[in-house]
Amino acid sequence: MKRTAFLLLVTGVASSALAAPTFFVAPNPYPGSGSTNDLAWQTAVGSFSEVDFDVMSGGQHLVSITDAFVSISTTLGGSGGESGNPEAFAGSWGGAANGSGYGTVYDIALLNRDAAGAIHSDFVFTFDQPVAGVGAWLFDNDSSSPQSMILQVTEVGNVVTSSSVLESGNGNGHFVEGFLGATSPVGITQARFIVLDGQGNPVQRSFELDHLQWGGPVPPIPAPGAIILGSIGVLVIGYLRRRHCL
Predict the structure, then answer these.
(1) Which pLDDT does position 31 carry in this prediction?
(2) pLDDT for position 168
(3) Which has the closest alpha carbon to 180: 36, 19, 27, 9?
(4) Which of 43, 137, 148, 178 could serve as 104's disulfide partner, Cβ 3.0–4.6 Å?
């Protein structure tokens, strides 16, 4: 079930050991098409919100996204510096023109370029409360050098985990398109979609992101100590009541 999300634009305590995140890495082979790469993630996460950046105008820079439950800070980071906001890029090059009949990043998508024109390796989405999952469609339209992408998530407890690499699906690093997502039972507090070079290092090369999706808030899970103390308290109260002390 999708929820309505709103964009803010400027023109120009759980135990992390409880469970690891589950990643969803679903490329479209080039040339090829596919519109269902995100369905497995959507089924796993349940209720989610989604933004198609066609609602923006080219040249705007995205500061934050909100729905009824969650606010998301939208910045750039990694190689190129931890600053700036991604640009809404009107390319009109996605879709069938570059191998996808669905057009997952067609027309307008987010570009990893800030207002000063600098390219960064990371899209960074920081949630004001932990969410059950995050995912997005990604596209690399650079045919001059091989790139790939990964998703790196930070869960409650500041545990950072990275996905396997999203490639083009046929061994060719050019024109990568596909879906990257993750779900977490303890909650995700930050997600980084990172572009890598042929050696697997973050690199300042253009790539695009569209159809950002995120799950609902994850309620805090009591720390093990609180659970133990609470259980002891219940036992003590029960004992005192049996002794007629309460």
Answers:
(1) 63
(2) 65
(3) 27
(4) 137
The whole-angstrom separation of Cα 56 and Cα 63 is 12
Q: Is the peptide bond before 86 cis (omega within 30 degrees of 0)?
A: no
How far is 197 from 147, CA to CA, in rounded Å?
A: 5
Residue 6 CA to residue 20 CA, distance in Å, equals: 30
Three-state secondary structure along 87-151? EEEECCCCHHHHCCCCCCCCCEEEECECCCCCECCEEEEEEEEEEEEEEEEEECCCCCCCCEEEE
Place of tokens 């490639």: 167
pLDDT of res. 167: 82
- The torsion angles phi and psi of 238, rounded to 5 degrees, stand at -60, -40
What is the spatial distance between Cα 87 and Cα 55, in angstroms, rounded to a whole number? Answer: 13
- Report whether the peptide linkage leading into residue 185 is cis, meaning its omega lies within 30 degrees of zero: no
Burial 5-26 (b: 16+ CB within 10 A, else e): bebebeeeebebeeeebbbbbb
**Identity at 134, one-letter amino acid code:** V
Residue 211 near residue 136, CB atoms below 8 Å: yes
Tokens of 82: 């931890």
Task: Say what the pLDDT of residue 54 is.
Answer: 85
**What are 109-164's pLDDT values in tens digits?**
899 999 999 999 999 999 999 999 999 998 876 666 778 899 999 999 999 999 99
Domain ranges (residues) in the chain? 2-221
Tell me the H-state helices in the chain: 39-45, 224-242
CA dist., res. 186 & res. 14, Å (int): 7
